[in-house]
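Researcher: Please predict.
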Amino acid sequence: MSRLVTAKKRDESTFAGARHTNTGVKDRLERVAKYIPSEILAAYMFFNNIIVIEPDHVWRLAYFSLAFFFCLIMTPLYLGKMAEP
């Protein structure tokens, strides 16, 4: 599965909301999943598991925020570097 998402042509019935099928929902979910690199998700889960080890730590919220913003910044950088045209 490629990480690049291509634009699809839409007809007027799609804009009007007249047609909603399971395949349409599946296609949309697959398009959203392509924007989430599994490597970044794995790093985020790793950071969260390390932070959860010490539940009563004073800086816990700051560590969660740091892990989130690190992954948020790394996602477009990773996609720009690894995307295949």
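Model: DSSP finds four helices and no strands in the chain.
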